[in-house]
Amino acid sequence: MNNEILVAENVTKIYGIDTKNPVTALSDVSLTMYESDFICVMGPSGSGKSTFINNLSTIDIPTKGKVFINGQEVRTMGENEVGKFRYENLGFIFQEFNLLESLTIFENIAVPLTLSHVPLEEVKQRVQVIAKKLGVDELLDKYPSECSGGQRQRASIARALVTNPKLIVADEPTGNLDSKNSHDLLELFKRLNEEEGVSILMVTHDSMIASYSQKLLYIKDGQIAETIERKDLTQKEYFYKIVDVNSTESQKLFID
Ligand code: ADP
Hints:
Order of helices and strands: EEEHEEHEHHHEHEHEEH
Radius of gyration: 19 Å
Shape: globular
Keywords: ATP-binding, Nucleotide-binding, Transport
Strand content: 25-35%
Helix content: 25-40%
Number of strands: 10
Family: Belongs to the ABC transporter superfamily.
GO molecular function: ATP binding; ATP hydrolysis activity; transmembrane transporter activity
CATH class of the domain at 76-165: Alpha Beta
Number of helices: 8
Distance between the termini: 40 Å
CATH topology of the domain at 76-165: Rossmann fold
Domain ABC transporter: 6-246
Strand order of the largest sheet: 6-7-8-3-9-10
CATH superfamily of the domain at 76-165: P-loop containing nucleotide triphosphate hydrolases
InterPro entries: AAA+_ATPase, ABC_transporter-like_ATP-bd, ABC_transporter-like_CS, MacB-like_ATP-bd, P-loop_NTPase
Bound molecules: adenosine-5'-diphosphate
């Protein structure tokens, strides 16, 4: 059995808890993620997917419950410590690439290392290695505005991976990509997952993208309503199972 990388115990998130209209966006959710897990999160709009991923990955702190990453309880860390912990342990990939326009691609990719005070020679070497892996090594002197959408996304992924995180957290990472770039990104995730044992927790609304994962969590009304494991299914068989869950769950919305 692989090591536990992320443990969430009875996590609840209530927005506006001190107001007249509190919203329970996540309700008593538990999850154990092991090294090399590739988990995908789906569910209707407003079901709590972003809240789930944010509260499990240090971006937000749950109202109730505990989250441990690499054995460390997130709530017990101070603000500075969480920031450092994030750079050292997690790689975030979002729909918006969030590159800093005033920095070159090299400088953007180097940000997490610079913030961790890694010596310049090592920064140069590590940026080169990851940039080559993502095919952006020719773009290092360019600014984001001089790059295409796919190139910008690859640069933002290089920035997420330059610290060699054990866990990648991705919220709709293909939201702004065309289908070729989306599949290239998922092939990269698959390679990192299978060959380097990187764990991935990803939100998507696209069943085809979800079919690259090994496990699907279907979130409904702030809870994990269904879990599907790929096991020995082919990607195509798993894809059809994912489509089926989405369509069955959508139909229930009509009946309810
Ligand atoms: P999803 O990602 O599945 O679309 P979210 O996690 O964004 O769902 O939202 C879950 C629920 O929590 C929704 O009802 C949403 O309106 C509510 N919500 C999300 N963020 C906030 C917030 N900052 N303040 C108040 N309510 C919020």
